[in-house]
Amino acid sequence: QITLKESGPTLVKPTQTLTLTCTVSGFSLSSSGVGVGWIRQPPGKALEWLALIYWDDDGRYSPSLKNRLTITKDNSKNQVFLTMTNMDPVDTATYYCAHRSLGIENSFDYWGQGALVTVSS
Amino acid sequence: DIQMTQSPSSLSASVGDRVTITCRASQSISVSLHWYQQKPGGAPSLLIHTTSTLQSGVPSRFSGSGSGTDFTLTIGSLQPEDFATYYCQQSYSLPPTFGQGTKVDIK
User: Fold this and answer.
1) What is the pLDDT of residues A32-46, one digit of tens each?
2) CB burial class (10 A; 0-12, 13-18, 19+) of residue A25?
3) Do A108 and B46 touch (CB under 8 A)?
4) Which residues of A touch B56 (CB under 8 A)?
5) B98 touches chain A (CB under 8 A)
6) Does residue A42 have a cis bond before it (omega within 30 degrees)?
7) How far is the CA of B69 from the CAs of A11, A106, B61, B102, in angstroms?
């Protein structure tokens, strides 16, 4: 059974760096074809894809946020990390990590519960 | 980026109604279109992938169709548990992009 769970700070100050952790189970981060993505959702708004890391450590980023994002993983700990620099109140959102569907391009078939991050001084 | 536009943004319907939601891509995406359902306070869940393939466990009253730029999600007979927000997403090219969502609520 595949599960994902996000963790990290619930409150960050403007200009600070956010680091979120996604702890996964039920699959291996190093297995061929595996990918884990990060998607966020501001309160009452739509979903926005942020980043994706593949089994071979290849990382892809949203062009509009590329300069602020870093995605990495630790296979031995079954964890994926997302770092976002220079946080701003507009980055207030629920951040989800999600499992990339195998063989179905970049759709996401398993999602974490989400982590609400508020950016405020 | 490929822009995804859903219509309507919201709709009110009754149990038993047939509901149709459309999603239009700003360029052709072949059949690389997926639908998600999100209930209040919950994470999205994959409903249909690759335009028309139901995810395991999804009731057969849900169906999807389309190709190129125009896609449709249909709920054949709306059930109480279907009241939610629905999002389309393209995976034809990076970055994956989502529509703005369609909220289905009770009439």
Assistant:
1) 999 999 999 999 999
2) exposed
3) yes
4) none
5) yes
6) no
7) 40, 18, 23, 18
DSSP structural state of residue A64: T
Q: Which of B85, B93, B92, B95 is nearest to B6 (CA)?
A: B85
Name the residue type at position A58: D
Torsion of CA B58, B60, B61, B62, to 10 degrees: 50
Cα distance between residue B46 and residue A11, in whole Å: 29
Give the chain B residue whose CA is nearest to the CA of A62.
B95
| pLDDT tens digit sequence for B64-101 | 999 999 999 999 999 999 999 999 999 999 999 999 99
Name every chain A residue with its beta carbon within 8 A of the beta carbon of B23.
Answer: none
Give the 3-state secondary structure of residue B70: strand
B11 pLDDT above the threshold of 90: yes
Average pLDDT over chain B reads 97
